[in-house]
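dumping this here so i dont lose it
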């Protein structure tokens, strides 16, 4: 290779031969190819002719010597071509599937990327400035439509009970009305306030001083039990026929109205969280789940989208078995993985708002990141270590220093591996962050700090619902779901 160093030469401009000397220098001048400024390459995959045969190729230092460098000729053009090839494989990490990460963050011409600027929707929310008490707030979520549905089908069930029990007390199984129905729901909510949802009804209505006077003043005990048995949310006469196409046909109308009213009366913040919630239930149900990581272990799973700051439930749906996550998605969206389908379905109301979605490692993938980017959203989340896009250098290793961080970048994504303790590594990705910023207080990457700030929305609601719950023991799963809807409002 031609040497890049040049001997310093001088010429006296007064000399009559100065022109000829300078002309000779210009003719023999060799342009230094190393001084050319090259644009950073953030392509996702490495060309086959550049990557070695080992698919697990790792970071290659820029001063790595190859055989082609040792046998280089004095031809300048050949030297430049070879140095360009070496530069293409320098400062990069490679995953098992040849996915390419740069060790240097991408160059940004603006201070704040456009996808991090929150765009509020043009739809105006209801003016709730006159909401003065919890009753008004309750009416915003549980409006007249929901109350009419519950009232109609509960009276149908009471009529069916009267027809089957000719000798029963007709007064206790009479039809109900809206006022009594609201009193019944208020009693359920009061049991959550007093944390007495698991107490016997006899104890709650005891008149020896140990009971609650407000229960006896609102509704009679026997009437409360009758309404609890008769409470219905759909036409139970043709339910078996509707189950063939919709396993959750007993409750979806109530869930849809709850979601519609929740979205109509609230404008979420910049950060939102997606996670699963388990409704404790051990009765018979076709789509009952076993989740050992949850306190209840057995129950019904709901996928939820919540505000990370206020824990407001903005969107949710009930998981009813295989392929239910892709319900309402088009054919193209249905080709995505199951976790990606769940996120796409939940995020539809906030498309194009540039909000950030925080997910755990069950949802997180580069497929999800690309899908959200195309829909005007960013994401931050943890990654499972078996993802083929993760280079080996980012996985746990014995020689890594505790508290150290390793970054990888593409044009749209940042990958970070943090070592919290020896032989451990936490791997996260973000389409919101594009630098290697470290928090000076905790010595943790800003990506991890953002994840910790926004990850707990669904878990916090699940915890509050378990502590302050109106759910009573039941063998009917639609009633268990309705109890959880009351809890989420409460």
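and the seq i came up w/
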């Amino acid at each position: 290779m031609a040497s890049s160093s040049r001997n310093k030469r001088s010429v006296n401009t007064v000399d009559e031969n100065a022109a000829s000397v300078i002309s000779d220098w210009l003719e023999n001048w060799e342009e230094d190819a190393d001084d050319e400024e090259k644009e950073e390459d953030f392509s996702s995959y490495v060309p086959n002719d550049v990557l070695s045969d080992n698919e697990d190729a790792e970071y290659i230092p820029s001063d790595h010597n190859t055989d082609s460098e040792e046998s280089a000729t004095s031809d300048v053009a050949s030297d430049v071509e070879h140095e360009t090839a070496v530069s293409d494989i320098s400062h990069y990490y490679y995953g098992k599937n040849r996915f390419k990460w740069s060790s240097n963050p991408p160059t940004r011409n603006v201070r704040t990327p456009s996808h991090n600027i929150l765009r509020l929707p043009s739809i105006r929310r209801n003016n709730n400035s006159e909401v003065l008490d919890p009753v008004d707030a309750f009416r915003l979520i549980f409006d007249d439509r929901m109350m009419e549905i519950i009232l109609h089908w509960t009276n149908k069930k009471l009529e069916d009970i009267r027809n089957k029990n000719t000798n029963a007390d007709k007064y206790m199984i009479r039809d109900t009305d809206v006022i009594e129905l609201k009193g019944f729901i208020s009693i359920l909510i009061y049991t959550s306030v007093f944390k007495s949802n698991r107490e016997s009804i006899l104890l709650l209505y005891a008149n020896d001083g140990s009971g609650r006077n407000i229960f006896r003043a609102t509704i009679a005990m026997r009437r409360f039990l009758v309404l609890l048995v008769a409470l219905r949310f759909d036409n139970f006469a043709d339910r078996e026929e509707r189950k063939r196409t919709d396993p959750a046909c007993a409750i979806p109308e109530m869930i849809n109205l709850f979601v519609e009213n929740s979205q109509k009366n609230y404008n979420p913040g910049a950060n939102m969280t997606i996670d699963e919630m388990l409704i404790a239930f051990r009765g018979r149900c076709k789509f009952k789940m076993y989740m050992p990581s949850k306190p209840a272990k057995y129950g019904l799973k709901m996928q939820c989208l919540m505000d990370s700051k206020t824990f407001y439930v903005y969107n949710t749906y009930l998981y009813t078995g295989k392929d239910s996550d892709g319900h309402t998605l088009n054919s193209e969206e249905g080709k995505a993985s199951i976790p990606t389908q769940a996120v796409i379905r939940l995020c539809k109301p906030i498309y194009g708002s540039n909000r950030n979605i925080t997910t755990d490692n069950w949802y997180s993938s580069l497929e999800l990141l690309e899908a959200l980017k195309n829909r005007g959203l960013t994401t931050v989340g943890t990654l499972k270590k078996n993802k083929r896009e993760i280079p080996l250098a980012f996985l746990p290793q014995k020689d890594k220093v505790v508290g150290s961080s390793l970054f990888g970048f593409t044009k749209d994504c940042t990958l970070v591996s943090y070592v919290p303790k020896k032989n451990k590594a936490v791997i996260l990705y973000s389409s919101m962050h594009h630098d290697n910023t470290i928090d000076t207080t905790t010595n943790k990457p800003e990506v991890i700090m953002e994840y910790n700030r926004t990850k707990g929305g669904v878990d916090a609601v699940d915890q509050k619902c378990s502590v302050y719950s109106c759910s009573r023991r039941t063998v009917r799963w639609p009633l268990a779901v309705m109890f959880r809807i009351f809890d989420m409002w409460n």
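The chain has a mean pLDDT of 82.
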